[in-house]
Structure formats: structure tokens, C-alpha cells
Amino acid sequence: MDAYELLFRHVATRVPAELTHRVGVTALRAATPVLPAPSADVAPVEAMGLRFANPLGVAAGYDKDAEGVRGLARLGFGAVEVGTVTARPQPGNPRPRLFRLPADRALVNRMGFNNAGADVVAARLAALRQRGAGTVVGVNIGRSKTASDAVADYRYSARVLGPHADYVVVNVSSPNTPGLRDLQGVDALEPLLAAVRDEVGATPLLVKITADLDDAGVDAVADLALAQGLDGIVATNTTVARSDLASAPDVVEAAGAGGLSGAPLVGPARAVLARLRARVGERLTLVSVGGIDSGAEARARLEAGATLVQAYTGFVYGGPAWPRRVLRELAAS
Ligand SMILES: Cc1cc2nc3c(=O)[nH]c(=O)nc-3n(C[C@H](O)[C@H](O)[C@H](O)COP(=O)(O)O)c2cc1C
Fold this sequence. Notes:
Bound molecules: flavin mononucleotide
Strand content: 15-25%
Domain Dihydroorotate dehydrogenase catalytic: 45-331
Subunit structure: Monomer.
Oligomer: single chain
Active site: 174 (nucleophile)
GO molecular function, one term: dihydroorotate dehydrogenase (quinone) activity
CATH superfamily: Aldolase class I
Helix content: 40-55%
CATH architecture: Alpha-Beta Barrel
Number of domains: 1
Function: Catalyzes the conversion of dihydroorotate to orotate with quinone as electron acceptor.
């Protein structure tokens, strides 16, 4: 156990998870100028016409408002997926809304897309591009809670944010915006993806799906992605399932509703990845996310067909040295 893990173990029982996160992002911004540049032990990845310095990215939700991109690049990440950003700024759900399940190396969140909104994030990304982000920057967009017309809402975000993104991800898989996951059905998804494609033009476009789709649902999204000329799929988001957890039932119950992330997602995320790769062959970029917490697991995903990998919860438990450790392990594997 390193110093961060020891500290985390003590802090975890006393400080609300969201406050720890806020402090972490602020510290990252402050430390960016003095962080050493990442080393290049792992082979770069060419995908979607982009060059990723390495295959390990930060999953959406960690840097929702594009505040810490350069710092995250310095920690070693080959990509940062900012967002989810919605057309309008919104506060998200009431706190507390982020919980730790340490016995499972998992988190439960019901953040509800708290973010500064497309206009503010677009301005930040424009400034970032001027200075050089130091990494590939994806932008993940979602539906505003109060939007009555989902297509128009996503269209606005795509128009405003697309010009500042290396790639765009349409998120239809978070469990914390009522009705959002219904957009994963092909009838709803088709016009949505067409509208976003129309706005972003040649910018690579991906869709992000949940771990909770059944096999037919995964196949349907894969087929639609191919039919609509998408560039890739990000799989998976969190799960609403609570099966086979090591945490005591009262701890799980106290966390309440929301998306479960971390180690319990390993099985579902692997299964969805295998199914997608079998279905689409080499035609799409697949970004595997869910429970990756070591170089060995990252390697396993790459060997199972992932083009790139991402993590959130493993990074939270592992701390600032975690990306470099994973990259070291990857290089040695
Ligand atoms: C606190 C928290 C907030 C998240 N917010 C978003 C989000 O805004 N958009 C999104 O697409 N995924 C979001 N996610 C899901 C992650 O991007 C990722 O798909 C999921 O956590 C599984 O990966 P992991 O096991 O490495 O955490 C969030 C996850 C967590 C833990």
C-alpha cells in the first residue's frame, strides 16, 4: 500500500467523497506546472485519425468542466474525456450523491450531470487548445434535465462543443437523468446520432452505452453505430445492479440509488467488449471502461479487442501515481 492509499483509507471514513474529489481536482490544477512530463514507455495508439500517446484515458465524469485537463495529461493519461456536458448549466442532484464502497473498490454516484454547461466548457476548451492540452481531449455530451426535446438539446451541445473536441461522445447511458437510458433504444438513438453527426461533421463520433443492456440491445447499438457511420463505442457506463458485492448490505443501502462503478464492473464490461468486437469486427474503435485498476486488466482489455481503455474509479482509489503505475505495468506486460 503506498502513501496515497494509506491516506485515502483514513480520509475515506471521515470526509465526504465529493469533497475529496473537489480537493483533488484543485490540487491537480495547482500542481500542473511542477509535475514532471510523462514518460513514453507504452506504444502510442493511432485511432479515428488521432494519435494517443498511450491507450489509457480518464473516463467521463472526472473532469466534467474541463478544469484539469493539462494536469491529467501530466499524470500520464493519453486522453481526457471531459463532461458529461449538457446544453444548459445544471446543479445536479442534492448532496450527498457520491459514495465509496471500499470493500468492493467501488463507488456509487447519482451526480445527475452537474456541470457548467456547453457555453462555459466550450470557452474553456478553446483557451486550452491555444495553450496546448498535452493530450487527446474528448467531449462527452448528455441531455439537460429540463430539456423537452432531447434531439435539439444534444444538437446544441454538439454545435457549441464539437469544434473544440478531438472526439465527441454521445452519452445515453447514465442512470441519473430520468429517461436518459431509454435513448439507447434504436428508434430514439437514430435521430439523435444523426443530428449530432450533422453538427460535428468529420470530428470522430462515438456513443457510450451502459453495462445493463442485454445482448440484443448491445447488438442493436453496434449495428446502428455501423449503419450511421459512427467511429466507435465507449463501453461501459455504470450499472444499476448491486449483485455479488462484498460490502455489508447496510453500507450498500446507505449509498442508495445511482450508478455503481469500479471492480464489480469488470465482468460486465469484459462481456460487453467481447460481444461488441465480435459484432463489429475491425470497423469501429472500441473504448473499454469499467473496473480497470491495473496494467494487467488494461492489457486484458486490449487483447480482448479494445482499441483504448479508460478508468475513473481505479484512479480515485489509486491516486495521482496510479496512471504511471498502470502504464509501467502495461509496458512490462
Ligand atoms: C462520480 C462519477 C461520475 C461520473 N460521471 C459520468 C458522466 O458525467 N458521464 C459519463 O459518461 N460517465 C460518467 N461516469 C462513468 C464513468 O465514466 C465510467 O464509465 C464508469 O465509472 C466505469 O468506469 P470505472 O469502473 O473505471 O469507474 C461517472 C462515474 C463516476 C464514478
